Amino acid sequence: MADHETTWGDHPRTTVRLRPGERVTLCRCFQSKNFPFCDGSHREVAGRGPVTVVVLQEEPSESRGVI
Ligand code: FES
């Protein structure tokens, strides 16, 4: 499962760390009780829905022809 942290500078910033192959659905409406992850609360408010992020598996360098 992805881990995350929020820092509070001039503007709050949340960083989500993902590993290759992970998939998460992130909240863009700021109503989720499980922020930064979507919990479906966007259905109750007008505005933005979630965005899904998928981390693609990177190929080993040998298979990309790197010498
Ligand atoms: S809860 Fe915010 S986008 Fe789904």
From TrEMBL:
GO cellular component, one term: cytoplasm
Signal peptide positions (record): none
GO molecular function: 2 iron, 2 sulfur cluster binding; metal ion binding
Residues covered by the Iron-binding zinc finger CDGSH type domain: 14-48
Pfam families noted in UniProt: zf-CDGSH
UniProt-listed InterPro entries: FeS-contain_CDGSH-typ (IPR018967), MitoNEET_CISD (IPR042216)
Keywords carried by this UniProt record: 2Fe-2S, Iron, Iron-sulfur, Metal-binding
Domain of life, source organism: Bacteria
UniProt name for this protein: Iron-binding zinc finger CDGSH type
Species this chain originates from: Thermoflexus hugenholtzii JAD2
The organism's taxonomic lineage, starting at the top: Bacteria, Bacillati, Chloroflexota, Thermoflexia, Thermoflexales
